[in-house]
Input
Amino acid sequence: MTKYCASKQRYQTMSYRRCGKSGLLLPEISLGLWHNFGLVDDFENGKEILHTAFDNGITHFDLANNYGPPSGSAETNFGKILKQSFLSYRDELIISTKAGYQMWPGPYGEWG
Output
């Protein structure tokens, strides 16, 4: 397996804006991982999508507890790709997630 090396020009083509009162810099385009990142999708394709996004200055990746399918698998796959490809770039990434959709039966399976 070839080690991923991000483009040195990744911040030259993307514009960034300050977010709310926090002042956090976010790219004008973020990547949501609802589709293409579940267990039913090709793992290598998902990895290539993330590499291409980051190489083009996209630093914000959005997930949710029910993204997949199956639910939760997009977060799991993103974690694997983060470990394999982006560990040395972790301080350059903004990762957001959300919870609340039903994940399993019972009193603690939703409204996380």
About this structure: The radius of gyration is 15 Å. Helices lie at 43-55, 73-86. Residues 35 and 41 are 8 Å apart (CA to CA). The longest strand covers residues 16-19.
